[in-house]
Amino acid sequence: MSLLEVSNLRVHGPARTLVHGISFSVAPGERLGLVGESGSGKSLTAMSVVGLLAHGLRAEGSVLLGGHQVIGQPDRALVPLRGSVAAVVFQDPRSALDPLMRLGEQLAQPIRRRARREGRTLSSAELRAEQLRWLDRVSIAEPERILHSWPHEVSGGQRQRIAIAMALACGPRLLIADEPTTALDVTTQAEVLELLDDLARDEGLALLFISHDLPVVARITERVIVMQHGRAVEEGPVNQVFSYPQDGYTRGLVAAARQLELAVRGMR
Ligand SMILES: Nc1ncnc2c1ncn2[C@@H]1O[C@H](COP(=O)(O)OP(=O)(O)OP(=O)(O)O)[C@@H](O)[C@H]1O
Ligand SMILES: [Mg+2]
Fold first, then answer.
1. Is the per-residue pLDDT at 267 higher than 90?
2. Which of 69, 49, 83 minimizes the C-alpha distance to 169?
3. Are 227 and 45 in contact (CB under 8 A)?
4. How much distance in Å is there from the Cα of 144 to the middle of ligand 1?
5. Average pLDDT for 74-90
6. CB within 8 A of 203, min separation 6: which ones?
7. Which end of the chain has fewer CB atoms at under 10 Å, N or C?
8. Which domains does the chain have, with CATH numbers?
């Protein structure tokens, strides 16, 4: 059975329809990429999956997440699914972090939530051990200092690592990553991508990975959907779509990525 089954998803804005009927599924452990230009509807599609559309937007169609219908459900019905079935890592880690809470306390929340779900109570020593284990898994140096720090006292790369740790500590089966490295410098980008790749593999997670960066999507995912103007214009195995793009828009994207790659090589 699919972990995520999206059928004819439409997202309506106040003035116009923004996503025009998109369908796809993600099996347990599978990795699907969503690519496409800015404004093509990638984030709206991802947010619809977890029922986190902004005020004023309305989704129609069907989204089955872990077998539960998301569309039209009140928030209280969706809260138990978030974290346990699907967790999200955003482009800007600040959106996942509370600026007024120390990082240790923030990381403790998903750890406690997961323990509660599994019927375990954690002693403070066990909680501390779990916090340190997660910081180690996301390769954070100086974990003791980080646990006592406020979000503004750590780097953007560290914030994103902590946001990833918080997402994974919930124990989700699907990780939705919406441009998770776009806000980082190139070196940190590569490190965080590798981290996501490794963690997803270790945890056996399914991935819905959103990016406008084709080479990154090709590296991380197996299957890809190309979006333009709120529609899927092409879909298939990542190698096939990028090696033999059928749609004119995809051909343009692939050609642009090639040119960029050649330009970067020429600079070396
Ligand atoms: N809250 C909103 N109200 C009205 N329109 C919105 C809202 N959020 C997004 N849109 C519009 O919906 C369209 C799709 O937006 P979306 O955020 O999904 O794009 P995207 O593919 O994620 O782009 P990017 O790569 O820039 O993140 C855009 O035209 C955007 O302006
Ligand atoms: Mg977006």
1. no
2. 83
3. yes
4. 39
5. 91
6. 168
7. C
8. 4-93+173-267 (3.40.50.300)
